[in-house]
Amino acid sequence: MATASLYRRTLPSPPAIDFASSEGKQLFLEAVHSGTMEGFFKLISYFQTQSEPAYCGLASLAMVLNALAIDPGRKWKGPWRWFDESMLDCCEPLEKVKATGISFGKLVCLAHCSGAKVEAFRTSQSTVDDFRKYVISCSTSDGCHVISSYHRGTFKQTGAGHFSPIGGYHAGKDMALILDVARFKYPPHWVPLTLLWEAMNTIDGDSGLPRGFMLISRLDRAPALLYTLSCKHESWMSIAKYFVDDVPCLLKSEDVKDIKNVLSVILSSLPTHFREFINWVVEVRRREEDDDQNLSQEEKGRLAIKEVVLKQMQETSLHKHVQDFLSSEKSCCKTIFTRTENEDYFPEIAAGVCCQGAGLLSGISGSSQFSCCQETGVKYFNVNGVKPVTMVSGTVVNGSGQQGVDVLVPSSQSELSCCGSGPTSDVGVYQASNDVSSLLTALLLALPPETWSGIKEEKLLQEVRSLVSTENLPTLLQEEVLHLRGQLQLLKRCVDNKVEEDLGAPLF
Prior knowledge:
single chain, alpha+beta, 7-stranded antiparallel β-sheet, 4-stranded antiparallel β-sheet, metal ion binding, transferase, acyltransferase, metal-binding, glutathione gamma-glutamylcysteinyltransferase
């Protein structure tokens, strides 16, 4: 049976007031004059219409993340990094969101995973006065924004549960401006704040819990300078379960005697989708306009900080143990980076290393299932006057798709040859496994402290706890590890469907 087509709806007024009406314009001017529309201008610059009828949560979040200038850390289209609804597939598959929408708790989880600072409250955890205070705070600043989850029926509108950002506040009339992302249906409109609270103070039929609101702002520093969790594919569920649930059980069941045994238990059973779960995000941004590989000052600064954090990671005692383990499991002499006078061969070496690393990260021995595109190349940069930085670029291709990789290779005045031949010459020798060991070190440091409690031998337990302790790590590295730990815990809560009850930030 054919469905009748619709062109917009008439906005029920009252209680709402159309933003573009004479009264709506007057409210806007008065609110601007009183200083409670500061957040509006950033939001309106990135205002978008949800691309699917059930994408109101995704559209609201993408709009706010872009307004806050949060870097997604991965490409949207071409060379551009940009938040789009299609990229917000972390805590719920897009097909499911398309069919049934997204819950309040899952949207909070998604905001966390996207690199934002989030404070979320159900109406049972707050009051209308608290809500008003937060709306005023965000309306008088462009550094935070409010997304409201409410029931349309309270405003006599058609439909049920809905998400939209709040664009401003009129203090004299106590009204909030809803920037409705379903612009094909209703325009932006003013509503009484107390009525908006009533609309939020309704029960979501799917979760059985009250709706609410979330405050989204930027973190004090960019998260995950080196590493980030990617839950783009559903495989992240099994991987989160492996690290948080299975690893502690494995350590309890195995009679481990030394650090190498501990690492063997964990790393020898990595899920096959491990490569898709942990993505290296150290990258050098290229300028599209002239493709001259020049870096902006901001990018040079970020790259310099990344180099510092990477060096701090590689100076930890745990990194040495991981590196030794990988060297014992793989023939490291096959994965040496050598800078020679004839750099025409370097891209070929890099291509091989790229594939071997991909195979290792996916838990597959060898690289026969991977190939690298011919675009693989090597560039050198001087960053803020410090020693040169090497970047290897390539594309790993397997049967299910391809993944672009930009790998920052730490330079060194003197490196030990993996074959035991002593210090290398000043041409510099690098092990490809060094990049992998740094990533694995970060993940092991990020595991919850209780992960290791199943180790039976007390002396070994204390040694492991000392190796994975974050207390004495340099500040930058500590922040990196704790952010990664928070992401992992949040994703695990998402797997267990606990995000609906526990909206707080991840506990470090």
